[in-house]
Amino acid sequence: MFIPCDRGGGSAAPDFKGFTLLMPAVSVGNVGQLAIDLVISTLDMAKVGYFYTDCLVPMVGNNPYATAEENSMELSINAEVYSLPSKKLVVLQIRSPFIKNKYRPFCETLLTWVKSSKCARVVLLSSSHAYQRDDEQLLGTPLRYLLTPDLEKALGGRMKELNWKEMEKVAAYPGISNTDKVLHIPGGGITKLLFTESCSEGIQMAVLLKFCSEGDNIPDAFVLVNYLNEWLQLIKSEVSTSNNSTDPSSQWKIPSSWRLLFGNGLPPALF
Amino acid sequence: MATFFGEVVVAPSRAGLDEEEEAREETPEDREIRREIEKKRYRRRGRLRLELRSGGCAEELLVCSRFIVAIGRNAAAFLSSFILDSVCWEVVGVVKLWNEWCRTSSTTNVLPTDSFCLFYRLISDPTVLLCQCSCYVAEDQQFQWLEKVFGSMQKKGLQVTILSTCPVADYKTQESTLTLVSPFLKALKTKEFQEQVCCPLLEQPNIVRDLPAA
């Protein structure tokens, strides 16, 4: 599945032992994917390989993180892997939807790769339909987390220290009391499948998700990536001297490919 | 999501349907239709097949140094009009496939353009291959198509050129597409391709998808 980039000179395949794998779920608003774009762009991560998979719709384009003419000509495809060894971080970016009936094969192959490359843990950025929230979820923060039992053990009370809210389970049959509570992540794509598989395979995985709707999801991406940053501290949140608050939003670098997200310029003849 | 008339519907999402949503929304009728379509795909063309005209053994590979693929009707028509002729080129193979987008309804009256991709070889240099693929290759057939086609080639310093078309309305640019002079050419190339490209490179945020991307 993972094909390392050919660096020439016979260099060895990258080693991800002990790394944190950060990846998105293709979910409502594509928030996870947008957040990952911000991480890769801001940390200027180097591409180390890609996934050769028949589970995603094929796509190709030029470098989405180009900053100048010189680096704009590298091809980019639907599932690529970036790495930052100084932070022991490896990032998978997924750029196209899943092909029908391919969710499960992808999850299985991905988790096999996670185990064989000996990543320490997986952090999955995702989102869920805001309109499906119940009355309690409508109040307070729209951000939630989930931890597999293995990661919960490893982290101890870290999430309590951060004052984060765990994703609630819902009744399997709404309206009927005394039914089992199940995990339900509508609009989350592969989130639930990957999470439940990780639980049963003993993989340390965290899911960070935001309730949102389709639309301009750039603000949602910033909120989610700041949420991630509270825990992983990927960038320093500088205290703003003017209003004495920590707002790291301005420190995330928007990639050049985020131009024209909502269409082209207007024809002058319209006016 | 509540609609104007007060009913609740599932909001469409760019992320596609969840697997469990797909399963839940499928009625027994939908399931039956889906099963029939899958059976039809398999019955009509089996799995995607690449048939070589030489009738050689299954392990025979086509030696290839240059491979030109035209995907879509416009690109295929370009090759037919300007490149292909019966003097210089010979048919060497065909990929047969079928999916729900093919317009024919019976196995006996299949139009070649609907479900065939034709492969030609330059008679004066048999390592130059050309493929016309004007049929629609569905998402879940694209990977198979690639594996079959490239798996049948013995690559000798292989250079691949893919010809395709996209609607101008899909092109993302600062100005309006109404003011653009069209048609126009754009290219994508791998870093291994060192020759001069005859047109500007495709700028971000434009992308290519489906079979040309694959």
Automatic annotation (TrEMBL), chain A:
Keywords in alphabetical order: Chaperone, Nucleus, Phosphoprotein
InterPro entries in the record: Proteasome_assmbl_chaperone_2, Proteasome_assmbl_chp_2_euk, PSMG2_sf
Cellular component GO terms, alphabetical: cytosol; nucleus
GO biological process terms held by the UniProt record: proteasome assembly
UniProt keyword Cytoplasm, yes or no: no
Domain of life: Eukaryota
Localization per Swiss-Prot or TrEMBL: Nucleus
Known role: Chaperone protein which promotes assembly of the 20S proteasome as part of a heterodimer with PSMG1. The PSMG1-PSMG2 heterodimer binds to the PSMA5 and PSMA7 proteasome subunits, promotes assembly of the proteasome alpha subunits into the heteroheptameric alpha ring and prevents alpha ring dimerization.
Family recorded in the similarity comment: Belongs to the PSMG2 family.
Quaternary structure annotation from Swiss-Prot or TrEMBL: Forms a heterodimer with PSMG1. The PSMG1-PSMG2 heterodimer interacts directly with the PSMA5 and PSMA7 proteasome alpha subunits.
Name the UniProt record assigns to this protein: Proteasome assembly chaperone 2
Gene responsible for this protein: Psmg2
UniProtKB/TrEMBL annotation, chain B:
GO molecular function, one term: proteasome binding
GO CC annotation: endoplasmic reticulum
InterPro entries for the chain: Proteasome_assmbl_chp_1 (IPR016565)
Pfam families (UniProt xref): PAC1
Chaperone is among the record's keywords: yes
Biological process terms in GO annotation: proteasome core complex assembly
Residues in coiled coil: none
Superkingdom of this protein's organism: Eukaryota
UniProtKB keywords: Chaperone
PANTHER family: PROTEASOME ASSEMBLY CHAPERONE 1 (PTHR15069)
Family: Belongs to the PSMG1 family.
Protein name per Swiss-Prot or TrEMBL: Proteasome assembly chaperone 1
Organism, scientific name: Promerops cafer (Cape sugarbird)
Primary gene name: Psmg1
